[in-house]
Hints:
Strand content: 35-45%
CATH topology: Jelly Rolls
Distance between the termini: 25 Å
CATH superfamily: Exo-inulinase, domain 1
CATH class: Mainly Beta
Radius of gyration: 17 Å
Shape: globular
Number of strands: 15
Amino acid sequence: MSHEKVLLKVLMPTMVFVLSSCVQMPGSSHPIALGWEDLLADNLSNCTFKRGSWTMDKGVLTRQGGGDIWTNESYGDFILELEFKVAKGTNSGIFFRTEDVNDPVQTGIEMQIYDSFGRRRPDKYDCGAIYDCLGPTVNAVKAAGQWNRVTILAKGSMISIVMNGTRIIDMDLDDWSEPHKNPDNTPNKFNTAYKDLARQGVIGFQDHGKPVWYRNIKVRRLD
Length: 223
């Protein structure tokens, strides 16, 4: 069975599950999905971070400097939806299934957040990539200063990412079967093969020294 058929087989029950739990609000033309929750509390009380390093104001999470921010709760299979905005030259990331917040690069998965607008051939370090493992199929990020919408689906070994309406990542973690090596034989920095990473962990937003903003951060558990 091809990789695409395997992915469809895994994701179809999830999409049916999501659609079947949508309700129509009176007077509205848009369905509202049940089971979603805010990932972060308005006062960030459900997070671990250095005081003052991040702020939440009117629903916008803003990096102030001083370290990453992490959920206190762990997530295994989930859908994460949010919007993000970068400044010129911004580098950040969304970590998920992170086992050790003191070593997230080696114990979690990172979707790269990066000001890479306009690049014709995005690679494994550009926005939307699973960092150092798999580049996005297309460069879907908007210019600095504009809001981007991204959806990350993690279900078992399958990772799917949609950015601004375009699916940019379809990844089976089980294909990353060796440390320091991607399936296309390019090297990566990871001491643990991605197939052997924990399938549950915390979600975090990276402080990489540049401005970044996140809003409308919603999560739905699929466990």
